[in-house]
Amino acid sequence: MHKPKQDLEIELAIIEQAKKKPEAFGVLYEKYYKEIFYYINRRVDDVNTTSDLTSQVFYKAMVNLKSYKFKGFPFSSWLYRIATNQVNEFYRKSKNQRVINLEDQIILRLFGELEEQPEKEEDKTGLLISLLEELEEHEVQLLELRFFEEKPFKEVAFILDITENNAKVRTYRIIDKLKKLAKGIDPPEVNDFLTLCPVLTLFIMELIKQVPATI
Amino acid sequence: MSNKYKININKPKPSEKEVDLHKNFNRVLSQYKRSHTNKRKPMHKILNKFNRFMSLFILIIVLFLVILFIKMYILDKKENEQQTPQPEIESVK
């Protein structure tokens, strides 16, 4: 998300004003609330939890505003960084299952990167679910920022507090890992339902065995 | 089916109206003001600041004491030299 230089300068002036007068922060709150809300909501299923976490993000931004230093990115990048940490903290404390929200566009984009094209749409979704299950949380986070949020590497690096090179290397490693996994994993199909439910298979086998005995 | 992650596909996002219902800058501002007015500087921060200047402060004090001691010693020596009577030279009879 590239912003014109003038926009960044205006934003910087508001930040400087907000450092002295917290009420001025309201402009930034209005500007970025929805963006941050949706970003958190894509990672947390519940709307009320999203609302709480979003409020915490803006509160923390206000508290730490004095330490904010402009590094050529829009202010939202800093908010994304706080939001990412806030979501991580939420999952660390609650130990809930992490949520990943996939959309058709994201699935297409990822398959474009993977150079793998299953024929059916359902196959793509199934394959992607299997692939994501193999990734660590920090790897999913990087993919989300790069391919779901479509952030440039520079901004991804800033949000995750790593160098730009590191962000690139890590992303390509993940893509490589996914490519290798994609070659080895078959997408689960509806026909293979029994293979997905071993307990049900065993139960049916037992039934078949018992049928001749009853006859 | 999945264990590690809960994966939603094409889940509708909350409407803008719904998001607006949760937006409340005054709540965040009052939380900020509350925490800011009751904020006491934590002890470790005070000690850290104190530690930063402490070594320099001790060094200056030690230097000052050494110089003072040397000066006093020299003055004392001079006074002693002035006060002590010259030894009488016994004339050889």
Task: Label this structure with key terms.
heterodimer, A: 215 residues, mainly alpha, 2% strand, elongated, B: 93 residues, 3 helices, 66% helix
Give a concise summary:
Chain A is mainly alpha-helical and 215 residues long.
Walkthrough of the structure:
The complex is a heterodimer of chains A (215) and B (93). Chain A is mostly helical and 215 residues long. Chain A has 2 domains: 5-94, Rna Polymerase Sigma Factor, Chain: A, CATH 1.10.1740; 104-208, no CATH class. Helices cover 73% and strands 2% of the residues of chain A. Chain A is built from 11 helices and 1 strand. In chain A, helix 2 (25-41) packs across helix 4 (75-94), helix 3 crosses helix 4 (75-94) and helix 4 crosses helix 8. The N and C termini of chain A lie far apart (71 Å). Mean pLDDT of chain A is 84; it is low at 187-191. With 93 residues, chain B is mainly α. Chain B has a domain at 20-82. Classes of the chains: A mainly alpha (215), B mainly alpha (93). Strand 1 of chain A pairs parallel with strand 1 of chain B, so a sheet runs across the interface.
Oligomer: heterodimer
Low-pLDDT runs of chain A? 187-191
What share of the residues of chain A lie within helices? over 70%
- State the shape of chain B: rod-shaped
Straight-line N-to-C gap of chain A: 71 Å
Q: How far apart lie the N and C ends of chain B?
A: 126 Å
Q: Mean pLDDT of chain A, rounded to whole units?
A: 84
Strand content of chain B: 5-15%
> What string, H for helix and E for strand, traces the elements of chain B in order?
EHHH
Query: Total number of β-strand segments of chain A?
Result: 1
Nearest-angstrom radius of gyration of chain B? 39 Å
> What string, H for helix and E for strand, traces the elements of chain A in order?
HHHHEHHHHHHH
Structural class of chain A: mainly alpha
Count helical runs of chain B.
3
Mean pLDDT of chain B, to the nearest integer, reads 83
Q: Regions of chain B with pLDDT < 50 over 5+ consecutive residues?
A: none
Radius of gyration based on Cα positions of chain A: 23 Å
Largest sheet of chain B: none
* Tally of distinct domains of chain A: 2
